[in-house]
Amino acid sequence: MQRIRIILFVLLFLMINTVAYAASFEKIIGRVELCRCNQDFFVQVQIGQQVQVGDVLRTGPDGKAVLRLDAGSTMSFGGNSEFKLGGEIEDDEKNLIGTFYRGVLRAILSKREGSYIATPRSLIGIRGTDISLTQKGNAGFYFLDEGRVDVQSDRATAVLDARQMTATYAGRKPLPVFTFSKSSGLSQARDRLSLLTSIEIPPSLRGQAQLNEILARWIINYSHYLADAGKAADAETALLIAEELTSRQNVKGEVLLQIGGLYFYHLNDVNGALRSYRRIIREYHNTPYYENALYGAIRCFMQLGQNEKAAEYVRRYEELFPDGNHVQGLDSLVR
């Protein structure tokens, strides 16, 4: 009987521990859903519900969640976020804490060196850290409040210390590290991130869009500095990030105009400049940048020796802007 009891106890212990619960929901607000590993459907979660390695959580536009990993580590998610829990707690999957696909995340982590968070385009190495992330499409921003992290993309690694940030775009190296406490725009963005991930503050349906526009505006300005400093490739990355972030037509037109100028004047890529100008002409003709895009396209056609196409665009410019800013410039171009 004693042996039977021992065997039953061991079997019960093994059955309990074969379910690898690695985390649990500490707080939730609004719509927060979970899809179990290898299942197809998301279901609404409850406070205290446990999460296994491979489970995917997502928040709705009105959702926020705090995921407790262990006594010293939490992850707070804002609205429209998606995250898959990794196997770091079980010492497998190469110390992967999880994969952050989109949205806003603040991670307070007391992890041993070697742990990391993945995004679709980068890896964030953790060394005991308080980091906030926002991810949209190909663009990601990383703000570090405490600790030290390595942000590794396909091309290079950026090392962040406290109060520093960087941004990434798919297939490109991270932007040069910047101290965000020195920039009012970035400090505003960092404060917005805190609001979006704070469970105590009701969610705002416009909060994520407002954050993206703040970041887009700052990074457009930063691209000017990078271009003037001779860092044309970094300036191009910054502008691509800005285009990914913004949803405003005027801002997209401005970004494309800046990209066109960067290609034409700094990267000696006339065809690249022409593509940007023609996108404005096709897609953003109702923005204030249409006139400059027409003029830029004329310059590109002339440089490429496509004089007939240039003449076509000149006629269009003169029809729409008879008193435009570039009328005198056109006269000298077509002589």
Total E-strand runs? 17
Rg from Cα? 25 Å
- The CATH topology of one domain turns out to be Jelly Rolls
Question: In which range does the helix fraction lie?
Answer: 25-40%
Largest sheet: 17 strands, mixed
**What is the average per-residue confidence, as pLDDT, rounded to a whole number?**
88
What proportion strand? 25-35%
Number of helices: 9
As an assembly, this protein is: single chain
> What would you say the CATH architecture of one domain is?
Sandwich
Order of helices and strands: HEEEEEEEEEEEEEEEEEHHHHHHHH
What ranges have pLDDT less than 50 throughout 5 or more consecutive residues? 6-21
Structural class category: alpha+beta
- Which CATH class of one domain is shown? Mainly Beta
Shape verdict: elongated
For the termini, the CA-CA separation is: 106 Å
What does this structure look like?
There is one protein chain. The protein has a domain at 21-202: Jelly Rolls. With 335 residues, it is an alpha+beta fold. The longest helix is centred in the middle third of the chain and has 22 residues, at 207-228. It contains nine helices and 17 strands. It is 40% helix and 28% strand. Mean pLDDT is 88; it is low at 6-21. It holds the Pfam family TPR_6. InterPro entries: TPR-like_helical_dom_sf, TPR_rpt.
